[in-house]
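Morning run. Coffee first, then this:
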Amino acid sequence: MSTGIVTDSTADIPAAEAERLGIQVVPAVVVMDGKALREGIDITRSQMYERIPDLAHLPTTAAPSSGSFEQAYHRLFDRGVSEILSIHVSSKLSGMMNAALVAAQRFRGKVHLFDSEQVSLGLGFQVMAAAEAAVRGATAAQLLQFLNQIKSRAQVIAMVDRLENLRRSGRISWLRAELGSLLQIRLVVTVAEGTVRKLAEVRTRARGLLHLVEVARSWGVMERLAVLHVGAENEARGLLEHLATLPGLESLFGTGIPWLVEATPVIGIHTGQGAVGLAGIRRA
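And here it is:
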């Protein structure tokens, strides 16, 4: 028996890694000027970010059709897998899981779903760990148990400048109530149990970046770690370099090398330009 792995492009897994591990990635959809575009197929990530500042209206996001998931499942079954584990962005923040569920029901129990309760590489690192275990022969049932252990160790934090973008997403109810008093404030947020939660309010980007470092240090030894950004590569590189100079580096990163990743526009549309964050998996 072999188990195939499917996820969506909000996982931010580099294409080379997805190919290496045999992960099927269903592209997320961004609606720009009334046209639905599949990330990585109809338009590249860099092209999306280049176009967004010139648009009259902020793009919106949408879950792929159930047919997109069904096609991904068929591709894996055609390659000879006996079952599939489909791992996706938090169901509290996206309709991905619902679309995947509709498709999975057509395969009579051979496709299993897992809600990562995370975004970006908080999801992606879970998917990669599952794919690595699948290569070693783990069944879907074993992978579900494995992922339930990993999920509690997944971490995502970010500093967000553009609070209005977050408000428009409609997924963060507490922000609507607080927005008026936070207009001159940057937020440091985390994703926990599938929802976005406020960690801190800061007045400057420098203080926000420092807060990210402080939180990262509190995580302890990390199995996987990445610095994320939305149109803020220089600051993200600076954060990566700053982390690398901290005393006790081994206890923070273990033996891994952190990644630098520009987050999917599906996330960037909601955070706005300038967001910087960290995603990782704490060592058990």
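The first strand starts at residue 3 and ends at 8. Good start to the day.
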